[in-house]
Amino acid sequence: MLFVWLLLALSWGAHSVVDTRTTVKECDWYSAENHVKQWIAFARAFQGPRDLHALDCFGASCRIRKTWTDRGFESEAYDVSLDPHGQDLSTKKGFRSLVLLGLRLLPNSIIVAGPPCSCFIFLSCSYHLRHQYGPKGATWKPGVRLSNLLVTNFVAWLQVMLAVGSGIKFMIEQPRGSWMFKLKCMRRFQKAANLRLLSTHMGAFDHLMEKPTWLLTNLSGGERLEKSMNKELRAKIKKRQLELGVVPYKKKDGKVCGTKWLPQSAAYTPSFCRAVFNIWAKCWLLLQN
Ligand SMILES: C[S@@+](CC[C@H](N)C(=O)[O-])C[C@H]1O[C@@H](n2cnc3c(N)ncnc32)[C@H](O)[C@@H]1O
After folding, report:
1. Is the beta carbon of 89 within 6 A of some atom in ligand 1?
2. In this structure, which residue's CA is closest to atom 24 in ligand 1?
3. Which of 1, 6, 109, 289 is most buried when burial is the number of CB atoms within 10 A of its CB?
4. Is the CB of 268 under 6 A from ligand 1?
5. Which tens digit of pLDDT belongs to each residue from 4-29?
6. Quick check: 80 and 116 in contact, CB under 8 A?
7. By alpha-carbon position, which residue is closest to atom 27 of ligand 1?
8. How many CB atoms lie within 10 A of CB 50?
9. CATH code for position 26
10. How many angstroms does the Cα of residue 208 sit away from the middle of ligand 1?
């Protein structure tokens, strides 16, 4: 099969800050949203081992996986950049492999997921037009269609996990300015899984940027991840940036553009991973007794 690495050329910023990818042409994209019942039936027939405590979904950095495995728990990561042919959520094969990974989750295990956000955020608003045309945005543009498909496939998978999993904890992350959680499918899942929307700043977990963030979760004690910005924290982050020469954004032709630092900012910091782990581990231990 012809291998197509379609890194969609979106029209913002000098540097590519695009984290939304597919390895196939649009005619080969797979939409799972109308097949959830079949996938639930497939999942119910699953006889394989359940051995995972955590699934690091869209986890290119593998930091969630590492945090769990370093502490003696089983974890796997799923991301198109880790396995372009097997872990591309825009394909049926990629969807199936995510279902199979999800079926290995133990009762009360956790899914941590930061779905690709570059086509949902403020920096790309002139491309995706989500505010103007509703949360689905400018669907006549291929990048917007792909980003919407990845979310609907992700939610279809979450629905399967909710239907067949037992006590699964969800931790879904997006930058504060993202339109993703406003999509109907996301809202419906939030309600179905009884998820709370928490507000935090990755800068409070040693991130090089303030990075205001939404966390959608049902993890009890998740509120401990909520962090607000204050003068001291802002100064600490600024100091970190100066020390390392980090300039996340710059102005070009009157527009705000991401620099080479911005794509790197997607990776969770070890400090954030540890904080999620500690909260989950407490619940896990309580539920084992
Ligand atoms: C916002 S980043 C999340 C990074 C994560 N927080 C980490 O620590 O690695 C979104 C991720 O989605 C992945 N992604 C983009 N398109 C994908 C696709 N079609 N299938 C699976 N993963 C995809 C990207 O490779 C990227 O790593």
Report:
1. yes
2. 19
3. 109
4. yes
5. 334 443 444 433 458 999 999 999 99
6. no
7. 60
8. 14
9. 3.40.50
10. 19
CB of 90 closer than 6 angstroms to any ligand 1 atom: yes
Residue at 219 is within a domain: yes
Q: Can you tell me which residue has the tokens 């231990």?
A: 285
Going from the Cα of 83 to the center of ligand 1, the distance in angstroms, rounded, reads 11
In a domain, residue 204? The reply is yes
What's the structural domain count of the chain?
Answer: 1
Residue pair 20/116 in contact by the 8 Å Cβ criterion: yes
7, 20, 58: which to mutate for ligand 1, most atoms within 8 A of CB?
58
Residue 209 lies in a domain: yes
Predicted local distance difference test score (pLDDT) of residue 162: 98
Q: What's the domain range around 118?
A: 6-288
Cα(186)–Cα(84) distance, integer angstroms = 25
CA distances from 10 to 126, 137, 162, 214 (A): 10, 14, 34, 24
For ligand 1, whether the C-beta of 178 sits within 6 Å is no
Tell me the per-residue pLDDT of 81-104, one tens digit each, with 9 for 90 and over. Answer: 999 999 999 999 999 999 999 999
Instruction: Give domain status of residue 1, yes or no.
Output: no
Q: Model pTM?
A: 0.92
DSSP letter assigned to residue 268: P
pLDDT at residue 256, rounded to an integer: 67
Contact indicator for 43, 163 with CB cutoff of 8 Å: yes
* Ligand 1 pocket check for 40: Cβ under 6 Å: no
